[in-house]
Amino acid sequence: MVTVPHPADLLSFAVELADGAAEVVRSSEAGRRAIDAKSSATDLVTEVDRAVERWLVAELAARRPGDAILGEEGGGRSGESGVRWLLDPIDGTVNFVLGIPHYAVSVAAEVDGRVVAGAVANPVSGETFSARLGGGAHLGGTRLTGPRDVPLDRAVVATGFGYDAGLRARQGAVALPLLPRVGDLRRLGSAALELCFLAAGRVDAYFEAALNPWDHAAGGLVAAEAGCRVSGLHDRAAGRHLYAAAGPSLAGEFFALLESVGADRVLAD
Ligand code: LIP
C-alpha cells in the first residue's frame, strides 16, 4: 500500500525544489532570449524555462518516483502515489526575457486533487513564499496574514491578461469599468507572485481569467493560508473562468464588483 507523506514533508520538499530551481535560474548561462512561442507570438519560452523544468522533473524522479507531474513545459507523467506535482519553471516568462525582476519558480503538491503544499521562489529577490494546507503561509520564516483593511475605492488590485488578442480585448473591457471603482490596478506579470503579494499585503486583491493550474496552484494556497478568500464567482470554485482573491473585509464587495462587470465571462464560448 502506498502511503501519502504528511503535508509538512511535502511542504519541505516543495521549498527545497523551488529554491533549488531558483538557483538553476540564477546560475544558467543560457541567457534570457526567447527560443520559441507557444499559444501565441507573445507566449514565450526560453531555454531556462525548459532547463528548470528538466531539473525539477529529474529531482522528483529521483526522490519521489511514484508521483505524477504536470509541468507547464510538457514535463509530465502519471503516478500511482496519489501525489501530483504542478510545476511552473518560470512564472512570468515575459518579465524574465525583458529582465524585469518579477518572476518565480512555482511548485505545488496535490494529494488526491487538492493542493496541500506549495512554494513560490523569486530567483532575483531571493524571496520564497510557502504554505501548507492548514499550516499557514510564510515568507521565509515570517507568517503572512494577508492584505490591509481598506475600502474598495482605495484597494490596489492586481490582475493579468492572456496571450490571445481576442481574450485580451474582453479582459480590457472588464478592467476599464473597474478603474474608477478601485484605488488602482497593477499588472505585474506573474500570477504566482501576485497571489503571494496578496498574502504579504503588497496588493489588496487579485483577479485573472484563463490561468493554467500551474500558474496558481502554489500561490493560491499561499493566499488562502494567509486568510484570503480565494474563489470564482457565482459560488464557483476558483479556476480557468476566474481566479480571484481578497482579504475577508474586502472580499464581499470585491467579488460583487467582479460579478457586475462579468469578469468570469471573458473566455470564448
Ligand atoms: C503568466 C501568468 C500571468 C499572466 C500571463 C502568463 P507564464 O504565466 O503568471 O499572470 O497574466 O499571461 O500566463 O506564461 O509567464 O508562465
Commentary on this structure:
It is globular and about 50 Å long. The model has no long low-confidence stretch (mean pLDDT 95). The chain is an alpha+beta fold. Strand 6 and strand 7 form a beta hairpin. It has seven helices and 14 strands. The strands form three sheets. A seven-stranded mixed β-sheet has the order 3-4-5-6-7-8-9, with helices on both faces. Strands 11-10-12-14-13 form a five-stranded mixed β-sheet.
Average predicted local confidence, pLDDT: 95
- Main β-sheet description: 7 strands, mixed
Q: Report the helical percentage.
A: 25-40%
**Which small-molecule species are bound to the chains here?**
L-MYO-inositol-1-phosphate
Total E-strand runs: 14
Features:
single chain, five-stranded mixed sheet, seven-stranded mixed sheet, alpha+beta, 24% strand, binds L-MYO-inositol-1-phosphate, 269 residues
Task: Reconstruct the topology from this structure.
Elements: H1 7-27, E1 34-37, E2 44-46, H2 47-63, E3 68-71, E4 83-91, H3 93-98, E5 104-111, E6 114-121, E7 128-132, E8 136-139, E9 142-143, E10 156-159, H4 165-178, E11 184-186, H5 191-199, E12 205-208, H6 213-225, E13 229-231, E14 243-246, H7 248-260
Parallel strand pairs: 3-4, 10-11, 10-12
Antiparallel strand pairs: 1-2, 4-5, 5-6, 6-7, 7-8, 8-9, 12-14, 13-14
Helix pairs in contact: 1-2, 5-6
The structure holds L-MYO-inositol-1-phosphate.
Brief write-up:
With 269 residues, this protein is α+β, with helices and mostly antiparallel strands.
